[in-house]
């Protein structure tokens, strides 16, 4: 049994922590939400009233937080000068999706304390977190990964060592830029086909076996009735929220600007998802971007 400190019990963090508990680990956890802590206690986790208690003497500390600012507020140089009581030999895993600069600062802070650290953002959504089938994109040393592998394996089905520190974050934002751009392309093509009198299923059958084949079409089609398991068949509930896709596209855009890399389609995708979210659809799955195209017909 490993003693785990888990920080952040949101939509992803709670089921991930629950998977660790189910695997036989002792999980002490912290969140700023009292409701989340109550749910954690009901799930069998050990809720703590502060982050210090959650990580005290933990073998492994895992965080799943909203932003780089939140990660550095926990693991970086604190204004009050206090340091988290992380014991020697502790492995620190940040599974948040954050900007690359904050990720680098996180690793530097842990390295300064001679602690092993990993950035390990995930793909698979809330359903994958609950089922323990997440994909982890991992950045950090091989030694850190070897120490963390049993824990990651309890929460995920596929663990990919992307490279050294920050490689996991880079992989995550680049992957989601592909997904965001592809979803818009598929949505535009299906909408155009339907307005020109072509049945969406016919285009689906053709493109699925042709050069238009891609994950956004064949595994996650934005039009209902094409892929039974896609969120489009559930009124775009569940899945990966549009506001989260917008967050990741903005992170990719920020990284692109910082590295001098031209990503015009990534920037355009971010702008379109921004418009979509401002119509009040940020909580819907990101495939609901097709609704923005359909709505334009009625304007």
Describe the structure.
With 299 residues, this protein is α/β, with parallel strands linked by helices. It is built from 13 helices and 9 strands. Strands 1, 2, 3, 4, 5, 6, 7, 8 and 9 form a 9-stranded mixed β-sheet that branches. Strand 5, helix 5 (100-112) and strand 6 (116-119) form a beta-alpha-beta unit. Helix 4 (68-75) runs parallel beside helix 5 (100-112) and helix 8 (167-195) packs across helix 12. The N and C termini lie far apart (59 Å).
Secondary structure class reads alpha/beta
Strand content: 5-15%
N to C succession of SSEs: EHEHEHEHEHEEHEHEHHHHHH
Helix count from the secondary structure assignment: 13
Radius of gyration over all CA atoms, rounded: 20 Å
The overall pLDDT, averaged over residues, is 94
Which shape, going by the Cα principal axes?
A: elongated
Query: What is the count of β-strands?
Result: 9
The portion of residues assigned to helices is 40-55%
How far apart the termini lie comes to 59 Å
Biggest sheet, open or closed, and with what strands and sense? 9 strands, mixed
Fill in the keyword field for this structure.
299 residues; alpha/beta; 9-stranded mixed beta sheet; 13 helices
TL;DR of this structure?
The chain is of the alpha/beta class. The protein is built from 13 helices and 9 strands.
């Amino acid at each position: 049994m490993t003693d785990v400190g888990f920080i952040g019990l949101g939509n992803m963090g709670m089921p991930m922590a629950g998977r660790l508990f189910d695997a036989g680990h002792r999980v002490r956890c912290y969140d700023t939400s009292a409701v989340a802590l109550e749910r954690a206690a009901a799930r069998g986790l050990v809720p703590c009233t502060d982050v210090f208690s959650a990580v005290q003497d933990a073998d492994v500390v895992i965080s799943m937080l909203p932003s780089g600012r939140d990660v550095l507020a926990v693991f970086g140089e604190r204004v009050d000068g206090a340091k988290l009581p992380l014991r020697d030999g502790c492995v620190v895993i940040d599974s948040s999706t954050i900007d690359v600069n904050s990720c680098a600062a996180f690793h530097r802070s842990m390295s300064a304390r001679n602690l092993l650290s990993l950035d390990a953002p995930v793909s698979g959504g809330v359903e994958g977190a609950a089922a323990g089938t997440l994909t982890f994109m991992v950045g950090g040393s091989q030694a850190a990964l070897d120490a963390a592998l049993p824990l990651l394996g309890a929460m995920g089905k596929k663990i990919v060592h992307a490279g050294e520190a920050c490689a996991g974050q880079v992989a995550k934002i680049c992957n989601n830029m592909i997904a965001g751009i592809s979803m818009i392309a598929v949505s535009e093509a299906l909408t155009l086909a339907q307005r020109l009198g072509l049945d969406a299923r016919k285009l689906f059958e053709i493109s699925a076996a042709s050069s238009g084949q891609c994950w956004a079409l064949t595994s996650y089609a934005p039009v209902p009735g094409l892929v039974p398991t896609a969120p489009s068949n559930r009124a775009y509930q569940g899945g990966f929220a549009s506001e989260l896709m917008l967050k990741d596209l903005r992170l990719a855009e920020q990284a692109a600007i910082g590295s001098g890399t031209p990503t015009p389609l990534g920037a355009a995708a971010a702008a379109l998802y921004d418009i979509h979210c401002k119509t009040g659809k940020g909580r819907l799955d990101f495939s609901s971007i097709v609704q923005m195209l359909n709505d334009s017909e009625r304007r």
